[in-house]
Amino acid sequence: MSVPEKYALITGASRGIGKAAAELFSAHGYHLILTCSRSVKELETLAVELERTHGITCLPVQADMGCEADVERLFAHVHALDILVNNAGMAHFGLLSQMTSAQWHQIMAVNLDSCFYTCRAAIPLMLQKHRGRIINVSSVWGARGASMETAYSASKGGMNAFTRALAKELAPSNIQVNAVACGLIDTAMNACLSPEDMASLQEEIPAGRAGTPAEAARLIYQVAHAPEYMTGQIITLDGGWQT
Questions:
Q1: CA end-to-end distance (rounded Å), the chain
Q2: What is the pTM of this model?
Q3: Is 1 inside a domain boundary?
Q4: Which of 124, 135, 136, 157 is 20 to 30 A (C-alpha) from 88?
Q5: How many domains does the chain have?
Q6: What is the pLDDT of residues 51-77, one digit of tens each?
Q7: What CATH number is associated with residue 185?
Q8: Which runs of consecutive H residues, i.e. helices, occur in the chain?
Q9: Rg (CA), the chain
């Protein structure tokens, strides 16, 4: 008896959490569609490595996930889908009073509009199979809010509400929607923090350290394979920081 092929789309997969998730899903036999907005060579190299190592197919696509036209172009290549991981995101540190309208709209586009575009396109593919999993990569600041990160916090708060509402909408169709809310994870997104700032943050965390992309990827994979009755949940991964 042949094993059905499995397909996963992971956005923002050239580095950090997205890359770690791509490595984990491919190791479990998933065929992948991976996106990035800028680091194209890194994504293409990753795709080749995953295909060679795990014997899966991996399609790298350059796309701005906050751009509706780019997402439509991406989904022209997607004909079957079991898992959607909305990981593409960006941060902005600074006073709201000094933020431009363009910066605000970019944060909302990349972090929140992207979920609308991808989910809208993915749902018909999942309905064909009467099953599917959507995992949105959120942040603890989506629930707590962070000083100097008002726009980022608002976008992740919106993602959390989006997750809960869409989960209710899709539950009758056996499509589960959950979010993983990360705390401090050691990724390039935090490169703007000085060593002193990073050390200060880690002192606040009961676990005494930042999380790793591999840890976040493992939780994403677990959520993607959780019991079907689990949906609409915002699951925190933060070393006890904001618990």
A1: 46
A2: 0.96
A3: no
A4: 124
A5: 1
A6: 999 999 999 999 999 999 999 999 999
A7: 3.40.50.720
A8: 16-27, 40-54, 68-75, 101-108, 114-129, 141-144, 150-170, 195-204, 213-224
A9: 17
